[in-house]
């Protein structure tokens, strides 16, 4: 009697084997498995290559097919070299690997990806594919292209003669533009000399500087400001400007001595201290206050006693 056909109690994951007068349940043979070890492979742009491996298990029969690459954001020939490798596995083995060249450049592009695809031949049966596609992420190691003033604020004394304004540059291409100045509270021709400079950068250039003349005078004006502006040509669209305007503060070095001219409001029991553009008041020893109002630290009664004592000595 074929019990396997009539009364087999084997589970779904077992195979019924008929024996004379009985039967046995045996585990089904495992399917051969093949696929990429990982679904994601990150690699830095300057690594020169990435190794992609197939994980192969329970391969009792030859497995054949091919490995190919497909572009994503990464471009073959510019970011990596495409491959088409034959897969031909004839013996049981755990893995086989393939190397894909990665191309380095100096251009900031951000991270880019491409795909590696496993395709088995149509006549390959009984093989279970796990990861049949893997994504390679090329991690960009280049700094972003940029240009801008090194600082947003420059301070210069009125008698310094000039101020130097520098651009910070990182670019793999040449680009052009203009540096100009415009008045704030400072007036061109009276406080500084305006400039109109052509910006013409080269690939290897990291910075370029411009000198603006500062004009000194004897007039008390207080601190004054003017602006320096960077404008790129209209055809330069791919270069982000980090800092396109800088403000220059001209620190006035002219002063009136309010203390000497006695045009201050310090208390009679305070000292007037002249500073550039103003003055300060400080209470004399034995007095306290803000310098404009000073009060004796001695109580009135104590002072009267001291006066009387001194009078009788």
From TrEMBL:
Annotated GO MF terms: calcium ion binding
GO cellular component: membrane
InterPro entries: CaCA (IPR051171), CalX-like_sf (IPR038081), Calx_beta (IPR003644), EGF (IPR000742), EGF-like_Ca-bd_dom (IPR001881), EGF-type_Asp/Asn_hydroxyl_site (IPR000152), EGF_Ca-bd_CS (IPR018097), NELL2-like_EGF (IPR024731)
Domain of life of the native organism: Eukaryota
Cross-referenced SMART domains: Calx_beta, EGF, EGF_CA
Keyword annotations of the record: Calcium, Disulfide bond, EGF-like domain, Ion transport, Repeat, Signal, Transport
A single BP term in Gene Ontology: cell communication
Pfam families referenced in this protein's UniProt entry, alphabetically: Calx-beta, EGF_3, EGF_CA
Keyword Repeat tagged: yes
Protein's name in the database: PA14 domain-containing
